[in-house]
Amino acid sequence: MTRVVATGTFDIIHPGHLFYLAGSKALGDELYVIVAREHNVRHKPQPIIPEAQRLAMVLGLKPVDHAVLGDLVDKFRPIRELKPDIITIGFNQRFTPETLEAELKAEGIDIPVIRIGQYMDCELCSSSQIIDRAIERRGYTLSRSPPSGE
């Protein structure tokens, strides 16, 4: 049985997430997803959706067999515990498969990392695009203040 682990923040679920998770699941028999903890998200704005809710949403997605929150201190602890055969990363994750494989090897973990391609047929395929659209449609300015009269 081939166990695949996918990782991400999954702030606002969109078609790009589904494409990534379905592509990850297609590589094996069992898909585990590690959902980033709010505390550990430092490379982009903090998630809007609380981590427990993001975990619940990911668990409800058809390709996902199991999902867990990441570790607050050791980002490799869930990998050691889950013992995957493959790790996948999404199209827009900031690191490369090679750099993640090198980090894993430095931790004594030898697992291939595969980047899942980009989902192209989507107008709103990122959480930031969805947020920007919501701000625009609600009449907020870039300062994120409500329009007058609200």
Protein architecture, described:
- It is a single chain.
- By secondary structure, the chain is an alpha/beta fold.
- It has a single domain, classed as 3-Layer(aba) Sandwich (Rossmann fold), CATH 3.40.50.620.
- It is built from five helices and five strands.
- Strands 3-2-1-4-5 form a five-stranded parallel sheet.
- The chain is globular, with a radius of gyration of 17 Å.
Q: Quick summary of this structure?
A:
With 150 residues, the chain is an alpha/beta fold.
Topology:
Layout: E1 3-8, H1 15-25, E2 30-35, H2 51-59, E3 66-69, H3 77-82, E4 86-89, H4 97-106, E5 113-115, H5 127-138
Parallel strand pairs: 1-2, 1-4, 2-3, 4-5
The CATH superfamily turns out to be: HUPs
Hey, roughly how much beta strand do the residues contain?
A: 15-25%
Number of helices: 5
Oligomer: single chain
Descriptive labels:
five-stranded parallel β-sheet, alpha/beta, Rossmann fold, 32% helix, 150 residues, single chain
